[in-house]
Amino acid sequence: MKFEDLERGIHYIDAGFRGVIQVAVLRMTYVSMVNYTYLVVDNITNQSVIVDPAWNMEKVDHALEDTGTKLSGILLTHAHPDHTDLARPLAEKYHCPVWMSNEEIMDSGFYAPHLVGIDSRPWSVGQIQIQPILTPGHTPGGMCYHIGDNLFTGDTLFAEGCGLCSDMEAAHEMYESLEHLKSRLKPDTLIFPGHSYGRQPGQKFSQVLRDNIYLQFKNKHDFTAYRLRKGQNRLSFFDFR
Ligand SMILES: [Fe+2]
Fold this sequence. Notes:
Elements: E1 4-5, E2 10-14, E3 21-30, E4 33-42, E5 47-51, H1 57-67, E6 70-75, H2 81-84, H3 87-94, E7 98-101, H4 102-108, E8 115-118, E9 123-125, E10 128-134, E11 143-147, E12 150-154, H5 168-184, E13 190-193, E14 203-204, H6 205-211, H7 220-227
Parallel strand pairs: 5-6, 6-7, 7-8, 12-13
Antiparallel strand pairs: 1-2, 2-3, 3-4, 4-5, 9-10, 10-11, 11-12, 13-14
Fe (ii) ion is lined by residues 78, 80, 138, 155, 163, 237.
């Protein structure tokens, strides 16, 4: 496998277990928007799962070709279109499950072929052990996925901020979700968010914990006052920090 495929906009990161698991970072673009999709690769059984696929199908095809893996499932952190755009065509093409939290399916009405509602129970795809962590706040059923020492966070946690919250209740939930992540992540866990605002995906949690202002608040009231401060674009799916 190539470790860099810059021409194709794909970057590979060794994600633990002595190279058994790798993460292909796919930078996806649509008009002026940029999202990160991740292909998690199991080099033993030659299977992969993809996180939040959107927009650039050719990059998914190239990453599958580069890694020589078969797509065995689609993990969705939440239902916003910039995270789910390719879920339906990929599920049809590869006849693989699409996983989303039961809460998010209920709240959003999202549908895709082979859609499977999940709770917090873990499961495995080959060597890839997937531990979902329910993290409401940006959306009512937002899910992070813990795979080895890697966390795929969608719009819950960015290196530089956290996802937008629509109201006070949502911001309280976001605070609790971030506190929950702080209580269970190891310093060396790599963070793979849905968006970047300057830092490369795959930052260590210890660094994010130190630098991210949203992880510094000591109570939900101060957190909420800051998250809902004036000047935030509350109408956009795509706003973030
Ligand atoms: Fe979102």
